[in-house]
TrEMBL record:
Residues 30-73 form the Type IV pilin Tt1218-like domain. This is Type IV pilus modification protein PilV. It comes from Halomonas qinghailakensis. InterPro entries: N_methyl_site (IPR012902), Pilus_4_PilV (IPR013362), Tt1218-like_dom (IPR054402). It holds the Pfam family N_methyl. It comes from the Bacteria.
Length: 135
């Protein structure tokens, strides 16, 4: 009479569990990467919207276009509608983006709005977008 097999089904179960574990680790890694890229895309969308907001503010006050000039990361100085718009915009950038800051460069009727923030997916990596418009 043949000897019954002992432990074969246990070994098959352990191998199946190992294969399943490796597959689940791969899925978790993909999910983590997906969340990180979605967050980066969200911040880029926010930055684009913020830059467009400043361009809209400048278009709404065309007589004071030159007053909207602002270096990236500098403090808003002055009074009036332009300074108020800049202050609100800088505060919005700081609250919506990690280390968010922005600047406006004006050359005649050409306006260049820059928004800069820190990308959390790569520590120390700064991202930036620029929108250019002719007024």
């Amino acid at each position: 009479m043949p000897k019954p097999q002992c432990g074969v089904s246990l070994l098959e179960s352990l191998i199946a569990l190992l294969v399943l574990s490796i597959g689940l680790l791969g899925v978790v890694g993909l999910q983590t990467q997906s969340l990180m890229h979605n967050r980066a895309a969200y911040f880029e969308t926010q930055a684009t919207n913020m830059a467009q907001d400043m361009l809209d503010r400048i278009r709404a006050n065309p007589d004071q276009t030159a007053a909207y000039a602002l270096s990236v990361g500098s403090t808003v100085l002055g009074n009036g509608l332009a300074a108020n718009d800049q202050s609100e915009w800088v505060e919005d950038l700081a609250s919506a983006l990690p280390d968010g800051e922005g600047g406006v460069a004006i050359n005649n009727r050409r306006v260049n709005v820059t928004v800069r923030w820190t990308d959390a997916s790569a520590p120390g990596n700064t991202r930036q977008i620029q929108l250019v418009s002719e007024l």
